[in-house]
Amino acid sequence: MKTSDFYFDLPQELIAQDPLEDRSASRLLVLDKETGAWEHRHFTDIREYLKPGDCLVINDTKVIPARLLGEREGTGGHVEVLLLKRREGNVWETLVKPGKKARPGTRLSFGGGLLRAEVTDVVDEGNRLIRFEFEGIFEEILDQLGQMPLPPYITHELKDKNRYQTVYAKYEGSAAAPTAGLHFTQELLGEIEAMGVEIARVTLHVGLGTFRPVKAENILDHHMHSEWYQVTEEAAEKINRAKAEGHRVICVGTTSCRTVESASTEDGVIHAGSGDTEIFIYPGYRFKMLDCLITNFHLPESTLIMLVSALAGREHVLAAYEEAVKERYRFFSFGDAMFIK
Asked: What global pTM score does this model have?
């Protein structure tokens, strides 16, 4: 299966640069995975497609302001550091620009010395391990100095940091938002719960690898990035109960999907626990737990469009995307939504 099999032509102007004022005002393209038929709706209409007893799975990870702008001590040269994953204590795996000037031993300073750091090692794919030095609480300093790590295709400045967080974000650790969840308001979630839909909260800390292009010609040669996830006993119980009673498990976003599929066994049971997952879902994959998916519109040739193609079929997905382009849907993180039923 070739990466080019998942290409579609996307006009640049359809890439959403700013979030809508009302989170739930997005459009919704509803795709029937069996027939390929679609409907044009609004996101608040999602209530019409949910039934009592269904389990809606959301990812409650919280994006940290992981982009730090500083300088190299001694030379004063500018440096940009993107926090990817905490390794231990105050040591983080990071992406540094310019990387060539961030050799082990390089000293860095941020916020006039409020936060200092030293590059200690170079690891996989050129990422740097950095040990931070500071007085006080790291998270508070990061909140003061850091910027939201918006995807590279968003060029506008984000005026309100909270618009790149879901309303249910709780556990800090992501370098990117689980963007399908950005469409939900507290009011809409309350209405869905009042309908008798169970809401299960899982956690997957989204890495920047989610934006990494697939460079291999054969998709099987692509190495998936690793992300940490957790499924609580309460979430596992809700999901298993819905499945046992013949109801649907509906994931909000590809991150929730990857979490439940990673934590489930072939017998269709999800198990509480935590760990790292490198699960790569592409056409031919047999879903163990997920029935339906709420998701955004993804990049051409990305692992995310491969995942939705595994659920609804490549031809159905590419035809729906062609329709979305024709109807001027807004694409990617701040864009419109799709419900694959």
From this structure: 0.92
